[in-house]
Amino acid sequence: MTAYVMSALALLGLLIGSFLNVVVHRVPRGESVVRPASRCPGCGSRIRARDNVPVVSWLLLRGRCRDCGTGISVRYPAVELLAAAVFALLGWRVGLTWQLPAFLYLGAVGVALALIDLDIKRLPNALVLPSYPVALVLLALPAVVDGRWDAYVRALAGGAVLFGGFYLLAVAKPGGMGFGDVKLSGVIGLYLGWLGWGPLAVGAFLGFLLGGAWGLALIAVGRAGRRTALPYGPFLLTGALIGVLCGAGLADAYAGLLTA
How confident is the model at residue 102 (pLDDT cuts 50, 70, 90)? Predict the structure, then answer.
């Protein structure tokens, strides 16, 4: 993939990231992400179009509302930049193929879900459940156009395997894992399963590894206890992203060590 195309995807990610800020703020509150238009939380003034350009407007306004001077969190441009990076990386990995829209959707909804889970320790059904039919439709595009029905069937199997495994873990240890994580695991399993069993295994394992390491670190510094509820979604999604980007290579390297 050329630098031009990756730059275009990064620009698209910036625009989508601006919208994701709205999603992260409103979805947990049960509010529409379309209406009303974005307004300053301080004075209620409607955000002008020129003040809604991703990253640039925040820099020009020095992180403050044009009308009342209320501070605008640095998180807003950070989310936009994060979405831009995720889109560019996914484009680099997947390329300009019929499967790219599906993975860009995963990147977008993954950023939103990770941030919401960090904020409220919950993964809203309003975002997780629609991701199933969206994934099935978008992954059907390359299956039909490129004849990749084997990958599509593997995606269905991967979603079922990961969902089933997480469900058993949640039932075996009540309170150890939320059912929002269980529902999200099925979505992730669809995408990683599409890429192969190696990426699926790597993504799932890294999700557990990263989440467990973070939990142990918090316990070690006294910021959490054994019964403290921690958001697992961000680590599950980070593991999935690594699985998408380099899961096949990591799985092959591990298999090579076993057979060496």
Answer: very high
Token pair of 144 as six digits: 């039909």
Q: Give the pLDDT confidence score for residue 221 in this predicted structure.
A: 85
Burial class (CB in 10 A: 0-12, 13-18, 19+), 251: buried
DSSP state of 218: H
CB 183 within 8 A of CB 233: no
Nearest to residue 191, comparing CAs of 99, 259, 91? 99
Answer whether 186's CB lies under 8 Å from 220's CB.
no
Asked if residues 135 and 110 have their Cβ atoms less than 8 Å apart, the reply is no
Residue with the two structure tokens 């919950």: 122
Model pLDDT for residues 158-172, shown as the tens digit of each residue = 999 999 999 999 898
**Distance separating alpha carbons of residues 250 and 253, to the nearest angstrom:** 5
Instruction: Give the CA distances from residue 108 to residues 104, 221, 230, in Å, rounded to whole numbers and listed in that order.
Output: 6, 33, 22
Could you write out the DSSP letters of every residue in 49-104? GGG-STTHHHHHTTTB-TTT--B--THHHHHHHHHHHHHHHHHHHH-SSTTHHHHH
The CA distance from 42 to 167, in Å, is 43
